[in-house]
Amino acid sequence: MSETTMSTLNKAHRINLNTSIYGTFAEIGAGQEVARHFFLAGKASQTVAKTISAYDMTFSDEIYGREKTGRYVCESRLEKMLTHEFTLLVERLSKKRGTDTRFFAFANTVATGSANDKKYCHGWMGVRFQKNPQGAYNDIILHVRMQDRHRLQQQEALGILGVNLVDAAFHHTEDYEDLISCLVDNLKEGQIIIDVLHFQGEDLKHLNPHLTNLELVRRGLAEAVLFGPQKEILHVPDTVYKKAVLLQRGTYRPVTKTHLDVLSKGLNHFKKDFQLKDEQCLSIMELTMRNLLTEGEVNDKDFLDRIETLCSLGQHVLVSNFYYFYPLKTYFRQYTQEPMAIVVGASHLERVFDESRYKDLSGGILEGLGKLLDAKTKLYVYPHKTDMTCMTAKSFFPTPSVKHLYSHFKESNQVCDIAGCDETEVYTHSDQVHQMILKKDPQWETLVPTGVRDLIRTKKLFGYN
């Protein structure tokens, strides 16, 4: 937070003093934490048309309609709240003051909790607003997880974030970096996690949703962001709920035929291992922020090129801050207890069983691998084949100090081969193909999927010219 950052009350007061801004606050689950700041700031009568806390589910259903899922802390509930409150506001007041007023509706639906049920301390928050009187409306919607241990602290964080969101809507939508900076004003580092940020509306079309959500991960405000096959931003807990998850890590610059063969063979093995049907499985191609860095910085176009090509194949794509596999597994275990597997090339085994990578853990490599592998989580190994050699899980020989540990996981079938050397072609790395593209070597076209090849050509991706 910079020295020039406005306090939460000053932000609320600035909005209250602007007589063209007028709206409604609807809050479920954690009190009137956001509206309270506007009343404390003074001049709230110039801004607040109505506040409401519909705590009782029956009463809430009468206003906003019933949720078929029975869940009230969800994005669909928030959207119903925004639609109802904004529509009601405009219908009742547009004739009286619509020519001079920019209407807004703020809403949140939140579950706070104690230190013992921290994973339930989350909520959806949004604002629907007009940039100009009588103009079309815009939406900014986010999902937040409160990291404080006690309810009072969670509620205070929620109130600050809510004021920041309303302030951002009217004063900080020129670029996504400024918007995100505004959202976390006056909040302590690590106090909240914002893992989804959605936009809608003509006045927000200049904001790229992919770069915006990537920025959340880059700043450490989110552990990961998930893109769907249509390049949409997905909420990880909702997407993986009760799903068996198969993960493949790579750089995908660009995605190669080898990547798809790894994923295909891994998925087939996964379904046989755990007797899963297609609809029970979710395969995700993951890349880390570290893999996105070029000379220490993220190249926006390069990132968008990767999302474009991977999603064109109908894949889910995760960008994460997890350098090691064990925190990646722990992250997903928060949201699904179904089987999981991580599929890697055999050349990665040396890193997975490298003791130096676990020196920050009190239990060292034993703790790290214990967190990674269990009866419902496996490491699948795809052969790393070159013109000269072929490496598999069977032919990997770790250092003597971890030899018995590796044998344990192999014999327990928690580390296993998913293909043999005769079943695979030479392993093609993304870097090799990228260099071919830059050098205008036409051989690259045979090493990537046909659809990806056409995309690279027509949209000039990855430096193709």
> Strand content of the residues, in percent?
15-25%
How many alpha or pi helices? 17
Rounded to the nearest angstrom, the radius of gyration is 25 Å
CATH superfamily of the largest domain: HUPs
Tally of strands: 18
Helix content: 25-40%
Shape: elongated
Return the structural class. Answer: alpha/beta
Unreliable segments of 5+ consecutive residues = none
List keywords for this structure.
465 residues; alpha/beta; Maf protein; Rossmann fold; 2 domains; eight-stranded mixed sheet; 17 helices; elongated
Give an account of the 3D structure.
With 465 residues, this protein is of the alpha/beta class. Helices cover 39% and strands 21% of the residues. It has two domains: 8-222, Maf protein (Alpha-Beta Complex); 237-459, 3-Layer(aba) Sandwich (Rossmann fold), CATH 3.40.50.620. It has helices at 8-17, 33-41, 57-64, 75-97, 151-171, 176-183, 209-218, 236-240, 257-274, 289-292, 300-312, 325-333, 349-352, 364-372, 400-411, 430-438, 450-459, and strands spanning 21-28, 48-52, 102-111, 122-130, 137-146, 192-200, 224-227, 233-234, 244-249, 281-288, 293-294, 297-298, 316-320, 340-345, 377-382, 384-385, 390-391, 415-417. The mean pLDDT is 94.
